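hey
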């Protein structure tokens, strides 16, 4: 017993290849290396295979080759190291050579297939599990759910979850997290609340998955229910859970609720906590509070990192704090600890200058930056050119994007916007022909709103909603009332050479307007904000219309688009028309 403890301790303390070879020599001289079943050999092999050193992990394969009759445990030890190492594909190649695989063999192989997103191999391993009757193993079922989810086959993940005879909390968590990460947030939340209703004890992983789903949907009510579970079970002693709750409230448009968590945390704030809170204020348009928090962070012992600076630059961007943002960008390298600029920092300051109309400065930064510019920088400049009608620079940015191989529909749409605003319809047609040749398809805009715990989704010109006639009647009423306030449709945003009336009708039925109209019909209580989420950026005409709706109908309306939050109240927006 004492010898076993000593050997275990020695193996764990092996930090170099030389140490590993000395232990191997000891096992060889004592005859334990060549035993049919040698736990010390297996532990040495596993320790060697899991080493971060490439020389040690390669030597693990060498050790394995020299075992006269390797046991399944020996195979599993090497397989585990390969699956968790820098080249998990090697584990998938090694797996078929194992003569008698067991549940652990399949589990380690599934870890490798999940890391490499190898769906075909996951299916093959699943079929072997069924043939060998290992399906009842609870851990293996959970690993299989996780592998399918990471390979984006959520239907198979759900099937495995439904079929396994016994489910522990890990199985529930694997599917909840998989659904949340796979853009099936509604299903993730349904599963979380079902888990809770069935009496399964939720843990930190459960609520992290549920909070992520709420963040994606902007589902405040569901988020509050999850947060209540967090507090009831004292899971707010975990800093990751607190960070996720702050992020959830921020993405639901309530940065102040997130700050309530931030300011009362008892588990200690990490750099991620500070970054999340700074970004929360920024995306909600409160650049000054983001800057104050950034300065407060500078007075703590927590080192700022590249994400800290990205968060505060984004906050300056959303709030139009141009001089402050440029100053922070210039001071980065001289900051405490020295933070190197990366392409995202350059992208943020280029966007900041572009939105402010300082296109020449933005262009100069792109041409003189110390890292290679990516497509996002040129897209930011192209977007600014659209805002300020700079056709020549828009064409330059567009050419750069084509040279870089970008095939994003947004690039073509922005250039088409620039031409349409100048009524250069032939150029608009030329851009559309280029889109057809490259088979570029425009991403359809959609918006959704939560009413009575249900998510209602709308696309432009939608007539599939069961209440579409009432919604359209409400839009007609809105159009009539806003014209009395001087509203004129921004028909220059319609990229078709059609009549003004047709353009106005096309604008009237944008998805965010449909969602807001449905909100007015369904949410009669004036004290409750109407909350809408959109997958793209809100268009200029919708922004003007929703400002007027907030004034005429006396309602607060919160729209979360792809970039930020817009809080409309009394005829104005929190972005101060700067987005």
């Amino acid at each position: 017993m004492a010898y076993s403890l000593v050997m275990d301790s020695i193996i764990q303390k092996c930090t170099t290849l030389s140490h590993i070879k000395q232990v191997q020599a000891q096992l060889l001289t004592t005859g334990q290396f060549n035993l049919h079943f040698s736990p010390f050999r297996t532990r040495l092999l596993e320790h060697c295979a899991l080493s971060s050193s490439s020389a040690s992990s390669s030597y693990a394969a060498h050790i394995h080759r020299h075992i006269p009759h390797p046991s399944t445990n020996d195979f599993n030890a090497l397989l585990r190291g390969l699956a968790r190492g820098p080249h998990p594909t090697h584990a998938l190649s090694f797996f078929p050579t194992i003569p008698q695989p067991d549940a652990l063999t399949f589990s380690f192989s599934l870890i490798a297939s999940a890391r490499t997103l190898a769906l075909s191999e996951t299916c093959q391993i699943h079929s072997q599990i069924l043939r060998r009757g290992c399906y009842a193993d609870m851990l293996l079922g959970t690993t299989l759910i996780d592998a399918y989810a990471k390979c984006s086959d959520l239907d198979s993940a759900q099937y495995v979850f439904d079929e396994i005879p016994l489910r522990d909390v890990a199985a529930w968590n694997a599917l909840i997290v998989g659904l949340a990460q796979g853009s099936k947030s509604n299903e993730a939340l349904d599963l979380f609340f079902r888990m809770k209703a069935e009496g399964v004890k939720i843990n930190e992983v459960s609520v992290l998955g549920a909070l992520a789903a709420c963040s994606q949907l902007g589902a405040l009510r569901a988020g509050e229910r999850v947060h209540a579970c967090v507090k009831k079970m004292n899971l707010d002693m975990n800093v990751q859970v607190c960070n996720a709750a702050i992020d959830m409230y921020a993405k639901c448009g309530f940065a102040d609720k997130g700050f309530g968590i931030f300011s009362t945390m008892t588990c200690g704030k990490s750099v991620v906590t500070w970054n999340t809170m700074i970004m929360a204020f920024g995306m909600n348009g409160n650049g000054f509070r983001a800057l104050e928090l950034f300065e407060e962070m500078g007075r703590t012992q927590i080192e700022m990192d590249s994400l800290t600076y990205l968060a505060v630059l984004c906050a300056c961007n959303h709030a139009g704090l141009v001089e402050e943002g440029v100053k922070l960008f210039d001071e980065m390298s001289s900051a405490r600890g020295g933070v190197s600029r990366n392409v995202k920092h350059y992208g943020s300051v280029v966007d900041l200058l572009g939105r402010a109309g300082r296109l020449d400065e933005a262009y100069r930064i792109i041409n003189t930056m110390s890292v290679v510019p990516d497509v996002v920088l040129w897209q930011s400049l192209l977007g600014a050119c659209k805002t300020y009608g700079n056709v020549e620079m828009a064409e330059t940015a567009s050419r750069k994007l084509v040279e870089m191989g970008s095939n994003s529909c947004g690039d073509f749409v922005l250039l088409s916007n620039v031409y349409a605003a100048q009524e250069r319809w032939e150029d608009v047609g030329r851009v559309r022909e280029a889109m057809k040749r490259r088979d570029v398809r425009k991403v359809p805009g959609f918006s959704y709103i939560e009413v009575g715990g249900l998510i209602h989704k709308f696309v432009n010109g939608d007539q599939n909603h069961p209440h579409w006639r009432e919604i359209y009647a409400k839009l007609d009423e809105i159009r009539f009332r806003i014209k009395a306030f001087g509203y004129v449709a921004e028909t220059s945003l319609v990229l078709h050479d059609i009549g003004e009336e047709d353009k106005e009708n096309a604008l009237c039925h944008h998805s965010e307007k449909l969602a807001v109209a449905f909100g007015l019909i369904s949410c009669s209580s004036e004290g409750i904000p109407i909350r809408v989420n959109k997958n793209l950026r809100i268009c200029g005409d919708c922004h003007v219309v929703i400002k007027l709706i907030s004034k005429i109908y006396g309602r607060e309306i919160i729209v979360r688009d792809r970039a930020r939050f817009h809080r409309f109240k009394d005829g104005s927006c929190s972005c101060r028309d700067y987005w």
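The radius of gyration is 29 Å. DSSP finds 30 helices and six strands in the chain.
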